[in-house]
Write a structure and sequence with these properties.
Blueprint (H helix, E strand, L loop, with lengths): L1 H6 L3 E8 L11 E8 L2 E6 L12 E6 L2 H12 L3 E2 L4 E3 L5 E6 H7 L4 H12 L6 H9 L2
Parallel strand pairs: 4-7
Antiparallel strand pairs: 1-2, 2-3, 5-6, 6-7
Helix pairs in contact: 4-5
Length: 140
């Protein structure tokens, strides 16, 4: 929770509850917590190490600029894993998609030739590069 709150500007920690003498977790360890990321409320429950993250659940982040893409990509993937098409897995195993809003606009172009060129370009990228997408979109 503190890791994510430190990365996103409009974020804050809410309520944190801890295990007591009754357990089942170690006394004093976090049982649950609430926090906000960019105004979105999250509830985290410490179910123990037997519960792991999978790519079946991911967070999709729309970015308006390449600077925002670059910053989130580097911070979230630090000690994690970078993958194809804007996907990454952070150091806790949580999957993220860091996607510029320009990608959706270009993929939605009514000119299907342009949209297909953008798709082909994106499929070759790990971190999404807006300039590379635009070059593919605008080529004659």
């Amino acid at each position: 929770m503190n890791f994510y709150v430190s990365i996103f500007k409009n974020s804050k920690v809410g309520r944190v509850t801890r295990y007591g003498d009754a357990g089942p977790g170690p006394k004093g360890s976090v049982m649950s917590a609430t926090f906000q990321i960019e105004g979105q409320e999250f509830f985290a429950l410490n179910g123990g190490p037997q519960f792991q993250f999978t790519p079946a659940i991911s967070f999709f982040v729309n970015c308006d600029t390449q600077q925002e893409v670059d910053e989130l990509w580097e911070k979230l993937s630090a000690a994690g894993e970078k993958n194809r098409c804007g996907w990454l897995r952070d150091k806790y195993g949580l999957s993220w998609q860091i996607i510029p809003t320009a990608l959706g606009k270009m993929l939605g172009d009514k000119d299907l030739v342009k949209a297909n060129r953008v798709m082909k370009a994106m499929l070759q990228m790990d971190k999404i590069d807006i300039k590379g997408l635009k070059q593919a979109h605008d080529q004659p």
